Amino acid sequence: MGKPAEDDKELEDLEVALLLEGVFRRYGYDFRDYSLAHLRRRLRHRLQSSYLPDLGAMLHRVLSDRNFFELLLRDLSISVTEMFRDPGVYQRLRTEVVPRLMTWPFVKIWHAGCATGEEVYSMAILLHEEGLLERCQIYATDFNQLALKGAKEGIYSLDQVRLFTGNYLKGGGRESFSDYYTADDDAVILKSWLKKRIVFADHNLVTDSVFSEVQMVVCRNVLIYFNRDLQQRIFRTFYESLCPGGILVLGTKESLQLSGMAELFEPVCPDEKIYKKVPQ
Amino acid sequence: MSRAAVRFEAVVIGVSAGGLDALRAILPRLPENFGVPVIVVQHQAPGTNDFFARFLDQRCAVRVKEAEEKEAAAPGTVYLAPADYHLLIEDDRTFSLTLENRVRFARPSIDVLFESAADVYGPRLIGIILTGANDDGSHGLAAVKRQGGLTVVQDPGAAEVDTMPRAALAAASIDYVLPLAAIGPFLANLDKNGAFHSDGLVNSIRI
Ligand SMILES: C[S@@+](CC[C@H](N)C(=O)[O-])C[C@H]1O[C@@H](n2cnc3c(N)ncnc32)[C@H](O)[C@@H]1O
Asked: Which atom of ligand 1 is nearest to the CA of A203?
């Protein structure tokens, strides 16, 4: 009874591996070191939604049909996000990180995996209120072009605004959140001056080369999708792109400890997962 | 098939409304050296901290904690899914978190945990659905059964909210329907190798 199930699993694992290899060779997107449990879920979801019989058929389809690949790319890129998510983190950024950023004449910030931009605009608002925005350059990157397009527009649905406003206030917001957008019937449009210091760019963390020396890397809820090896590689990438004493901000449920890279960074606010690069 | 021959490797539990009381009735029954990890999805509001895990930890012999990304699932430990993330388990028995959209309005979702655990543990998994006001978990429990695992549902007649157990009963073939008070002793009957102590108890409560 257990046997056929195990055979099925072996076969599915092989098919997943072949599919990822095919996607990588054909399109250059490398998912081979993503979390397998996550990949299985997303691929099964695509099988069902596209009425494909099995992963073999999906491999064939993805190699011959670029539109299908785009669809798959979106399935594998989870771009769920919100403004001022985890307000406690923004509080600590104001009190613990801003004073450090003040010590640099010019501050470059890299938001890796910025999705549809909510987190980047939250940072821009915070920096503005702390009087630092004019001295900053923010690079906001993601490999999901559709998400990036949304990020550049900065238009969000009206029913999220209550959540965003609540988060903003809990995160130590000092003005009125409604100063930062204009609202129409069902959407809010962020004020365009918020975008002045932001450059949005298509960048794949796994396959593209690193960014120029930055003072802070914000990469939240992206590494959770990677296996341990890939996490370690990316932590090393961040280490190399940060200037001495540079700041690393992770998602609140992400762990340097468990991915085995605790020696590269020391905690500034351990609970909020804010770290500082240690000297070599 | 004799269940006594199977060495179970993990227990997954899904619970929603009424969960605090349900878990308080079950988890304190487990001995400190309980032979397998217990992985729990309790629906929670986003922004909830690990209060729940700490609360249960103080009342249990087993260790109770929030599951962390990349942490290995260890015996004698109960892991709770953190609020607002889905919890999955990998082939190497470490946890993954994802922010995927809510599944049937829930994040964490019981279905998501159970389906990934069914992939990993196959027939060596026990899946349990307890009280709750929605139908999350029914697909997941069906997946546990498909992979040859053992399925348990809290007796809906006595559940605080019966929607979730009833949905599970309708969706999957169930090995045991047990009143809340019997679930703790049932699990405690697993020995340190994850095998059931005496098949007698197991068969006596079989439906
Ligand atoms: C869950 S969102 C996180 C958004 C935001 N940082 C937050 O925490 O709210 C994850 C994002 O990571 C992006 N991502 C995943 N793999 C990536 C890669 N290899 N390179 C760049 N971005 C990636 C996805 O496209 C998605 O937009």
From this structure: 21
Protein residue closest via CA to atom 25 of ligand 1: A77
The residue segments making up the domain with residue B137 are: 3-203
B14-39 pLDDT, tens digit per residue, is 999 999 999 999 999 999 999 999 99
Q: Which one of A5, A258, A259 has the shortest CB-CB distance to B122?
A: A5
For chain B, give the percent of residues with pLDDT over 90.
Answer: 81
* Cβ A42 under 6 angstroms from ligand 1: no
Q: What is the CATH number of the domain that holds B195?
A: 3.40.50.180
Q: Name B145's Cβ contacts closer than 8 Å, sequence gap at least 6.
A: B127, B151, B172, B173, B174
CA distance from start to end of chain A: 55
Q: Which residues, in sequence order, are bridge partners of residue A155?
A: A189
Please, what is the average pLDDT of chain B?
92
Core vs surface per residue A219-235: b (16+ CB within 10 A) or e = bbbbbbbbbbebbbebb
**Cα gap A59→A74, rounded to integer Å:** 16
Cβ of A78 closer than 6 Å to ligand 1, yes or no, is: yes
Phi first, then psi, for residue A115 (nearest 5°) are 50, -130
Please state, in angstroms and rounded to a whole number, the distance separating the CA atoms of residues B52 and B58: 10
Cβ atoms of A94 and A112 closer than 8 Å = no
Q: What is the pLDDT of residue A8?
A: 82
Contact at CB, B122 and A225, closer than 8 angstroms: no
Q: Among A34, A258, A273, which would you mutate to test the B interface (most chain B Cβ atoms within 10 Å of its Cβ)?
A: A258
Q: Is B43 a catalytic residue?
A: yes
Give me the pLDDT at residue B103, please. Answer: 81
Residue B16 catalytic?
A: yes
Pocket flag, ligand 1, residue A120 (CB < 6 Å): no
Tell me whether strands B10-15 and B38-42 are parallel, antiparallel or unpaired. parallel
Is the pLDDT confidence value at B3 over 90? Answer: no
C-alpha torsion sign, points A94, A100, A106, A107: negative
**Nearest chain A alpha carbon to B1:** A1
Tally of structural domains, chain B? 1
* Residue B69 CB coordination number (10 Å): 23
Chain A residue with CA closest to B69: the answer is A254
- Rounded average pLDDT per 10-residue block, chain A, 280 residues: 69 95 98 97 96 96 97 94 97 98 97 98 98 98 96 96 96 96 94 98 94 93 96 95 97 88 93 93
What are the respective helix, strand and coil percentages of chain B, to the nearest 5?
35, 20, 45
Predicted confidence at residue B131, as pLDDT, reads 96
Residues in Cβ contact with A266 at an 8 Å cutoff, skipping those fewer than 6 apart: A275, A276, A278
Q: Measure CB to CB from residue A37 to each of B1, B89, B101 and give the nearest one.
A: B89
β-pair partners for A200: A140
